[in-house]
Amino acid sequence: MLTEDDVRRLLLQKTETKNLDYKQTCNWANASSDEKCELVKDILAMANTQDGGQIVFGVEDRTFNLVGMTDAEFQSFDPTRVNDFVRRYSDPPFACTVYKFVMEGLNSIVIEVPEFQEVPIICKTDAHSSNNPRRLILKKSGLYVRTDKPSSELVSNADEIRDIIGRASRKKREELVRTIEALVTGVPVHPRREAREQYETEMRDADDFFARSLPANFTSDGHWEVVAYPTDYVEDRFNDHQRLADAIRDSAVALRGWTFPHTDREKAANFLKGCQSSTVWSRYIEAYRAYFSGLFVWKGAFRENALGEGAKVLSFISTIYSLTEFFQFFKRYYGRIPDMAGLHAGIRLTDTAGRALASLDPRVELDGEYISREPGVLLQRDVSFAELQSDSDQIARVLAKRLFALFNWNNISDEIIVAWQQRLLTRTY
User: Fold this and answer.
1) What is the mean pLDDT of residues 91-101?
2) What integer is the mean pLDDT of 47-52?
3) Apex CA 234: angle with CA 229 and CA 238, to 5°?
4) Using CB atoms within 10 A of its CB, is residue 176 exposed (0-12), middle (13-18) or buried (19+)?
5) pLDDT band at 341, cuts 50/70/90?
6) Pairing of strands 313-315, 122-123
7) Mean pLDDT, rounded, for 256-263
8) Per-residue model confidence (pLDDT) at position 1
9) DSSP count for the chain of H helices, then E strands
10) Structural domains for the chain
11) Coil, strand or helix: which one is 225?
């Protein structure tokens, strides 16, 4: 379920992207067919865009500040009526989720649009403008996507077609690979000592960057540290900055509005051996370095730190989401290295002693008290390329159970973790 904090995060971005669109106002009950069809076009386009997206109403067009909606506009958005209208134009039938929020006395509507599950969503019938019948708002058999502008447009070039076909094929292929791996299990390849030493040199270099870019108290506060690299060392796997930057951008996971990894518009830059970015906001503190060799290092403060010193907690739901996002990113990013034998992934959580697992979702009660006595938690996994591509969510589940065990929660079931993962992946949280 989308929370108020999630919406605040969307509003903080103050820029529209493929996965995020702001709109000032709309009264669904009184909206013209043209207005509704324009919104359907945005929904169809986001459904065909990697990770889907969100449409936020109540945001001023020029400043991107939250200005709210009238009560009549706010109440007019009935989820059933919105989805009934969307289904008139979507094939296969498609549905989104409509959320209502009141923040600082201002009304806002957020439409959550999941990425298609198996096949792209096609527009199944024409929609002509009622004001100008010669203008076509929606085109029968049209395939809409979000562009870099960002806007919602018909697929217009071979690259966009290849991207959609590729994502649809991967969804089918992952299912096939899982079936094959049930018969023949890929054996993880462990990094050789020489390769590990070369990566460690780059990791020390990355630590210098983090020390320069993140606040002085960052290391003493609870945070995540994520490291991943191919099991063999090749200095120039990504042989130029543009290719590496494109790989990061196209692999970023945008399931919760804030991408992983987040590339800051002002602080992103190239360095000699790769690309880097840092973000230091009141609620979001993180940075990454990506090397031509394939080494990726990211550090980010626990989001729970924003609750204040008196709340030393870790959301078990957000933890499942984060681990799933990490491995979704790895699957996409390292999927661009077809000759890679295997991957080493390391995930560290700091300042965990005395930290308790919590729900932080008023609808979900966590029975029992689960507190870590360890000063830090380190999760490591070596996986084959085939396992990464077919079972990234399963890898995240295994590591989640290991992590929760170190908070003395020994009996969480796979079914619970799977259920939360599916909520994230289908944007039904």
Assistant:
1) 92
2) 94
3) 80
4) exposed
5) confident
6) unpaired
7) 92
8) 72
9) 10, 19
10) 4-168 (3.30.950.30), 193-425 (no CATH)
11) strand
